[in-house]
TrEMBL record:
Domain DUF1972 span(s) in chain numbering: 6-172
Native organism taxonomy: Bacteria, Pseudomonadati, Pseudomonadota, Gammaproteobacteria, Methylococcales
UniProt-listed Gene3D superfamilies: Glycogen Phosphorylase B (3.40.50.2000)
GO molecular function (one): glycosyltransferase activity
Organism per entry: Methylococcus geothermalis
One Pfam family named in its UniProt record: Glyco_trans_1_4
Gene Ontology BP annotations: lipopolysaccharide biosynthetic process
Record-linked InterPro entries: DUF1972
Protein name: DUF1972 domain-containing protein
Keywords: Transferase
Amino acid sequence: MSLAFLGTRGIPAQYGGFETFAEELAVRLAEQGVLVTVYCEKGPAEALGVYRGVKLEYVPATRCGPLTTVLFDLRCLWRARKNHDVVYMLGYGAAVFCFLPRLWGCKVWLNVDGIEWRRAKWGRVARSYFKIMEFFATRVPDRVIADAEGIRQHLLQRHKRLAPCSVIPYGAPVVECPPDADLLRSWGVVPRGYYLVVCRLEPENHVREIIEGFLASETSHPLLIIGDHSRKSDYVYALRGYGSDRVRFLGTIFDLEKLQSLRYHAVAYFHGHSVGGTNPSLLEAMGCGNRVLAHDNCFNREVLGSNGWFFRQADDIPELVRRVEGLSASQSAEMSWAVRERVRLHYSWDRIAADYLRLLESERKTPANPDSMSSLSDMP
């Protein structure tokens, strides 16, 4: 059985959630005997041909503004159209073109990730485009994969029909041994002496609400915010205005060891994401045993279950901070154990890989049919 991953910049992962997902899953499936290929963006440096048993194919990306990613995905679809049993497209920006491998008898899976058109950073034209692509994502591939039940329900509510849909979340490691606390010295903090946010600085991640609620609390600890605060946008500019000893912007941090140390040793982790499914940043915080204060929506509740505290607006946050700081040592340790156990039971990479392996085995029994695409006549 051969499987190709498309829709990432490639592995080894250096950029974001999809790259990490592709690497963790591809390597584990290759270990189980699946012939796995990851299509990567071609760069100027000499590139690997194989990485941990996974074949790497390189495709050039033409820089053309907002269309760069769409055209890159289209090129990858064309290159992969007849060389694999299953092509797995991550993201739906090029969903309309996912019929191409099917014409050559190859099955196509598509992971819709989050609700892209709800992101505030997009203008009217981009939002309209992503709404249309979401429609095609429900019809063109052989199978839709949602990373949360909340995403599947969203698709069912918005669209009259949906291709067969499997719910398989992302995964995360469980950090059992305390990371080196000396790494915190770079930021002048100590274990259990700060709160943490890790996210893109976008309105749908409710960073402003988190900051305002935190500043209204009585805690003496600072709030550390990891995210690109140098980006030029009105929202980021407004956020920078809150910068002080209590609210510190650390910028982007890609060093995994440092990130794990910051997550593990925080008093608590704020998670404001609201338009995604199973968010990798939330899972990684849980894997580090963070006490989580999350925005109240179906996605975060699905991931956390009863193992977190939730806020809807800034006014809710001071009370949650008070509760966190009122925990006894045993209560805090129990919460840390509970979130790690939830990751271990439901979101471990080995479990996720096993779910995909079962799905691949089921596809082996049902031959591809290029004439079976759903009718597109009722396009909105």
